[in-house]
Amino acid sequence: MKLKTIAILYAVLLSGTLSANSMFPPLTDPATGQSQPGKFIWADLFSADVDASISFYTEVFGWEVKRTEAAKTANSSDIYYHLLSEGKLIAGIVSRPTVKGETDKALWVGHISTQNVQKAVNAAENLGAKISLEPRQFGQRGTHAIIVDPQGAIVGLLNSDSGDPKDEDAVYGEWRWAQLFSVNPNAAMDFYSKVVGYETQELSQTERENDFILLQDNIARAGIVPLPKSLPQQDRWVGFVSVDSIDDTLRKAKDMGGSIIYAPRKEVFDGQLAIIADSNGAIIGLIKKSGIAQVEK
Q: What are phi and psi of 16, to 5 degrees?
């Protein structure tokens, strides 16, 4: 899926009746009242085949689905699907039309906790980012914006009205990490440190250069690594979900029509990390519950 296309779709699909309170409940219930700046706290999946996406994620991760309709209409853009893990909101699915010539039919877009969304958007635009969705209120969830960074990666900014999910031990089926695969890690590091306020730390112990950790208040929130030359040369964020077993999850994913993008390697988190494409081509990461801890600087 072309990132420019999904950026436009994001602005269109989320500019209508989807902003109703019933469509977007509080992110945390009960409210935490806590802000965890720099943490990835939400994700939306744009899918040209919502039924296939639902089948894949309910089977592979055991997520539950709640359908919400803003109005009595057959227009799929007025329908929003919440994905839940053990009753906790995890992500949403929005239906999108198929675009001729695309090789994948879906894309995940992660959202970073941001205390002042308008200020972050202004900073991003000044640094060359494109603004796909200007800051606006979405129901009881909070203020959203969507940007396309100077190297083409789409990412959301979100100020949750109810507070952010607490930092807790990894729980099966929940988001655990986010990694930016970049053609220019140094430029990406500079951009996100200025827009989000991340501190940065280079992992000098790794075999490759330009592996960075993004931190807020000495807590690791995300990473930046070089994008392999074998892949299309456009930056992309990948969110990682906590699982009990990498091997079991990979088997389920393949059985449901998914494919392995990055197979586990012993030298990378002791083989407890993988990246897959779902049955519609959306890329998502897997990490064993003990694979990444909240890292202090």
A: -110, -130
